[in-house]
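Consider the following assembly input.
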Amino acid sequence: MVAMSHPGLPALWGLASLMLMLFIALRAVALPRATVHSTPHLALAGLPLVGPMMRHITRHPGFLFVLKLVFVALFVLIIAAGLYGTPLPARNVATVLTWNLWWAGLVVSVFFVGSAWCAVCPWNTLAGWLARHRLWRRADTHAGLNLRLPAGWRNVMPALALFIILTWLELGIGVTLDPFATALLALLMLFLATVFAAVFEGGAFCQYFCPVGRSIGFYAQLAPVELRPVEPDICARCTTLECFAGSAEVDPCPTHLVMGRLKQNTYCLSCGNCARSCPHENVAWRLRSPASEAMQDSRPHWDEAWFMIGLLALTGFHGLTMLPAWDTTIKAIARAIGDGRQMLVTFSLALGATLLLAMALYTASIRLSARLGGIRTAMGAHFNRFAFVALPLAFAYHLAHNLGHLLREGAGLGKLLANPFGIGTLPLGMAEKQARMMHMVISQNALFTLQAGLLIAGFLIAALIARRRLDLAASPNIVQLRGQLLPVLLFALAVSLFHLWLLMQPMSMRM
Amino acid sequence: MPRTAILLIAVVALVSGASGARAHHVLGRPAYALNEDSNTPPAMQVETWVGNYDFNYMVFPAFPRPGEPGRINLYVRRIDGGAAFDGKVTFTVQDDSWLNWLGLGAKEETLGVQAPDDVVFRQGFVFKNAGDYLITARFEADGEPYIIDFPLRIGARSPLGPLGAVLGLLGLTLIGVNLLQRRRAMSGQIRSSHEKS
């Protein structure tokens, strides 16, 4: 079957991006040592027009509740269309809304509003309603078992494992092309979220298991918005900690965060419970530099380091599977090893190899960095510290890749919403596919500029993170510091060049 | 023997176990196609390969209904060189249901034995009942038997099964949790009243 593909970045764009990345790498090595400093912020509540609106949204649950209702309604529509609608993926709202718009748009949304999706997530909303018997007020404390999650599960490795399984289902089994399977997957996630909400305390599923929530959480470290104390001194003097424990009307923080000590967005679900429960009205949304958190505020942990490297590998793998050459390559490998059926063994091997390769490359660069920098102890800390470098690389490529899908395949939505179940429709013909590709919201050159710009920005932030993390670690002298920096920069450059190469290739349409 | 060696052997066995023309295959993912330049109706299509042959399986119409005649077109070509297979292919059918997986389903029936018609093996069908079926194509080439399965859906899927299963499981879990929680609360009350007395 002939699949239509989108054109890749022209060679000139690739060359210009490469030159800029090399310049950034050299500049990062030559930078003088920096010291820790507080990054400037802009409180959204203090802005002239947006301020009053933000204050109202933050303090009152009504707006959030309406948004939750809208997303629950869309979720129910997706389930219904998936189960009862046409099996044609491009004509069924279940597959188009889920994979073309939500999945692709989710990463773009993090760029503007951080982890806001988690606040309106229909899985969490429905799970809360079903298991805790409350629509918006504080949940009944006797509604669930409220068990503490076993200590061994309190890390993000389950979320990474589920993300790998999700990738396998999405790209290996082809759930994206099957409305019925898409609806089943959505129901399965709802089942898991509800069981966790009924059995365990707080938002255990969101915090440690949800692959979507955790990916958003990590990417949100690079978001330009954060929910933080207005006056840190008020938090320092607070003894009641309503942000953590909740109030008579408002639920406690689902991920057990204390606002006065909050330094990173990773586990913040943007639910706003802290802002509503704080008796001093001391919690508000504010704007910040997107790179500040990953550069100096986030604290490195082993499980988070592995998650970030896994995320980097999986985003690259997504891109790889959408190259027209992927099908021929995987078919050739399948034939060589005698793997018929859906070539699932070959697919699984390729997925595993990509994950292993990314992890091996990162580990090798860290070992080399330690050797050149004269580090003989605390290798784990060295490994965890630099994993933040993977975050902007993964985020930038994920954004650039998904922008291509969103802008090139977003056409025809009006027609689809008029017939969400796709009753009586025919498969997409070549002429219609061609027409959809031609109706882009922005020009092709604008898209190329955005994609190349994102990759360059991603590499720039990665280089800054590597450099700042080293400065914070206080290496004894500048020669050792550069010795530590160089292998990490080379790793970031190699990954960025791979991403650039991916973007320069033609890319298959999702449906 | 070290654990990694056992694991390696298991992986190699898994990979090699998937090979060979004798393997029982369920073909790849279905796709739907429409060619605006021809009068051909939309088709459900699956492509895959087994042993030395590439297979292209097409079902017309794309969504066959009970009582409505339909047609299977099967293209079989050698991987090396693309020569079309010119022997005969036997088409059989059986229910593709949970009961069949457990060995309790209806028996396999033969749809027909077809010779190539201009390199295409054409097999007509009419099904009385809606459901999931498994079409099996059998032939012998290079001294080896080829048995290839592919899916066929007649009529609309019944969504009550999976929806009912998920909702039922959810309901059972929530009721179970509720009962446990009540019991815990009651035990707590009894314990505190004992402590008071």
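Residues 159-191 of chain B form one domain. Ask yourself how this observation constrains the way the partners meet.
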